[in-house]
Amino acid sequence: MVRARRGRRLVTAAAAVMVLTGGVTAAGTGTSVAARPPYGAAAADSKPLPPELEKIRAQEATRLYGDPAERPMEQRKTSLISLGDSEISGEGVGTYEPGTDGPDNWCHRSPDAAIHRTGIAADVTYNVSCSGAYTGNIKAGGSKQYADELVQSDSLAIKARNTRLKMVVLVAGANDDLQFGPVMTDCVTRWLLLQGACEPKYAPGWQTRVDGLVPKVEQTVGDLRTVMRDAGYADGDYKLVVMGYPSPIGPDIEDNPDFPGKLPGGCTGYTSDSAWGRNAAVPAFEKGMRKAARESGAVYLDNSRLFHGHEVCMEDAWARGLYVDVSHPFPPDANSVRQSFHPNARGHAAFASCLTQLYASGLREASCADPASTGKPELYAGAWDDAYRPLKNVGTGSCVDATGGSSRNGTAVGGWDCKDQRNQGWWYDSGRRSVHVELTQDRCLDVPEAKYEAGAGVVLWNCSGAANQRFVKDVATQSIRPEAARELCLTLASAKDRVRLQKCDGSATQRFT
After folding, report:
1. Interval 224-266: pLDDT, tens
2. Which end of the chain is less crowded, N or C, counting CB atoms within 10 A of the terminal residue's CB?
3. Rounded CA separation 500/511 (Å)
4. Residue 209 belongs to what H/E stretch?
5. DSSP per residue over 448-496, as a string?
6. Over the stretch 305-325, which tens digit does the pLDDT of each residue have?
7. Domains within the chain, CATH numbers bracketed
């Protein structure tokens, strides 16, 4: 049978419980916020800031409240804040806050960034992330990225004293050992100059890069915790979320009925490199980020599959393709192409939806995706690493396999020697009764043209929630049946045959574990 990870479930609105609405406690005191000293005495709960930061804090407090005093928690405005790099700053949206679009500051903070668009109730939202930032620009005692920028942890220290922070979101790591941006740029350049795919160049050392960034993200999370404690917060007073990165590219672009071509669409690069990015590079990065979140005690949001089906050059793309700002020197410098392959406004809306659902859920680990091409992300308990499992046929001992490692529409599904590869991983969405291949959240088992007849071979097709993509699993018989034709069962007649529909007879070739 198709197996989902135990306990994995869709987090519905009915099940979502606000977990931060109870009484909060002052760090190290065990005293509820309501019992804190009256207005004007809040400084006793937080450590003094260095003079230069205190001056900035007082100026911001004056703008918020009309005077510079540090208020007790119950008298403060509520807030949310995002820290990190271009993935969360708004790079790629195209509209940026004044002072962050050059020539001396390229943070590219967008008013459409995710932190400003959640459904989480807050009086103030702060985006202190910056395009190009690495963990050294975020951690305590780190370096300024630009002369007019603070170290991001210092910005957090100020905001934490002037407002009551409900959620701190960190998206970081891509600009450390991974150097994701330069790698993407090199892959595109190699395609433009006909120099050959970049996978052979980067794949051998990719895991080493991931391993190198993990402790840096862990340290950064630890530093942010310390900053919040020094500002008078207990760890349970707010959510600290480490958010993972989605894959902006994929190899299935020609399935888009309106595919414009690689160059016009901005999905420039070798298709094999796009497959490597989606199937290997981003998943390895995601596992590293998950480890960093677990080791540091942060909440983790796995967005690695969020853009599946919405990649550059796909329908309703949530990421911007290759973009050259010709107002900068040509051939392109770093600033002329920096907006490429980043979330667009729709991508940030997806982030915001996932963060909203996560905040309400109370989960320590969750994943987000659009499972039926609805354009509306849904949150699931746990990370995607734990969701997918091989589907082994009892009669043949072989595993259900997406032929050739492809996920294009119409890919035949058959049996093959079990190899623990992503084209042999499957996840059963119990809510929609769809069976997804691990290669992409956007491809499901499909009965072509809904022809429910003996001998019909199943294929992969763009997940749509249609009736011919709905299957039921019979726990007692270990069979998988089309919901619309339950007298038929998925059958693997021989080890490397096609998976076909046949009349259910209880044989071992119709049983899957």
Report:
1. 999 999 999 999 999 999 999 999 999 999 999 999 999 999 9
2. C
3. 13
4. helix 199-230
5. GGG---TTPBPEEEE----GGG-EEEETTTTEEEETT-TTEEEEE-STT
6. 999 999 999 999 999 999 888
7. 42-385 (3.40.50.1110), 389-510 (2.80.10.50)
